Please model this.
Amino acid sequence: MTANVLAGITAIVTFIFVFSLLRRGALREKYAVLWLFFSGAALFFAVVPGALDWFANLVGVATPVNLLFFVTVVLLVLVSVQLSYELSRHEMRIRRLAEEIALLQEEIEQLREQRDN
Model:
């Protein structure tokens, strides 16, 4: 099995997996688009292996595999940064909701005390 066939199969499996997660509602569209783009790009380079060589020559990288590893690492770092941003945002929202619930519970307790007295 050549590397191109393996890359193509991996890209297709990734595409099917992400699409099934999207259909079940386990993955939101904004994240699915990114992974579908990655799998599409991987499938393109697997089907057209000369494109990776051409692109490596264009940017001045001697070995196309090194370019592929570099781009993959950069993309994974960007995905990690995006997920960290989303996680921080959700953490702030959860903290604010917990504070609002605590304030509302305090108001309810005060109203119950006023009603009972």
